[in-house]
C-alpha cells in the first residue's frame, strides 16, 4: 500500500484529507507543522505528501526545501496545498520540488485527481 503524510496545521483539513486518502487505499499519517513532518520523514519516508503552505514553526516551503536535501527526500510526490491564489508562491513551491499543487478549499474529486495522477508518475 502507498503511504501519504498530510502536513497541515488545520485538524479539519487533515481529517477530511485523511478520509479521502484512506478511501483510496493510502496508509495515512499526519503532522501539524513542517518540523513534525520532517521528523516523521526521517523515521519513514512516505510515498506522497499533502503539504500546506502556511504553518507555524516551519512553513511548507521551508519543509519542502529541507525534505529534498535528505537521502530519499526526492522520492515522495508532494502536492502543495494553499489558499493563496498567488502564482509567485506556486512557482516557488514548484521550483523547490513540489510535484503538483491545488487550492483550498478542495473536495474529494480534486484530491483524488491529484493523487491518482501522482500514482501514474
Automatic annotation (TrEMBL):
CDD domains: REC_hyHK_CKI1_RcsC-like. Keywords: Phosphoprotein. Gene3D superfamilies: 3.40.50.2300. SMART domains: REC (SM00448). InterPro entries: CheY-like_superfamily, Sig_transdc_resp-reg_receiver, ST_Response_Regulator. The modification 4-aspartylphosphate is found at residue 52. Residues 3-119 form the Response regulatory domain. SUPFAM superfamilies: CheY-like. It holds the Pfam family Response_reg. This is Response regulator.
Amino acid at each position: 500500500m502507498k503511504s501519504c503524510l498530510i502536513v497541515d496545521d488545520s485538524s479539519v483539513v487533515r481529517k477530511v484529507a485523511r478520509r479521502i486518502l484512506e478511501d483510496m487505499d493510502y496508509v495515512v499519517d499526519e503532522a501539524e507543522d513542517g518540523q513534525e513532518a520532517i521528523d516523521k520523514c526521517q523515521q519513514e519516508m512516505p510515498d506522497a505528501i499533502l503539504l500546506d503552505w502556511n504553518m507555524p514553526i516551519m512553513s511548507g516551503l521551508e519543509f519542502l526545501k529541507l525534505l529534498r536535501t535528505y537521502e530519499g527526500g526526492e522520492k515522495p510526490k508532494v502536492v502543495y496545498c494553499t489558499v493563496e491564489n498567488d502564482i509567485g508562491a506556486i512557482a516557488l513551491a514548484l521550483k523547490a520540488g513540489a510535484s503538483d499543487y491545488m487550492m483550498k478549499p478542495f473536495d474529494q474529486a480534486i484530491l483524488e485527481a491529484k493523487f491518482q495522477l501522482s500514482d501514474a508518475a
